[in-house]
């Protein structure tokens, strides 16, 4: 699962619910919150959400940079895996990047 939270206040206010939903996945990659014009306070955002997900440390990771996500997916994905992207509107644009990155590996 690749998840980009949407809006700082939503991520903060719904952190427990989001973390519980993300914990259903086998592995989770969390990006920073997409919140144009919003300011994150200390303890808010993608790092805090990642920490709240009840998965083993090796099964969850915070990847703040969009450009680094495809390499992280390639590192984790195995043949037969399903990679799901969810969250803020820009995440729908990542599918083609992930497919291109996964193609050479055969995953």
From TrEMBL:
Identify the InterPro entries for this entry.
Answer: Mur_ligase_C_dom_sf, MurCDEF_pg_biosynth
GO molecular function list = acid-amino acid ligase activity
Its ancestry begins with: Bacteria, Bacillati, Actinomycetota, Actinomycetes, Micromonosporales
Give the domain of life: Bacteria
Report the source organism.
Phytohabitans suffuscus
Quote the protein name from its UniProt record.
Uncharacterized protein
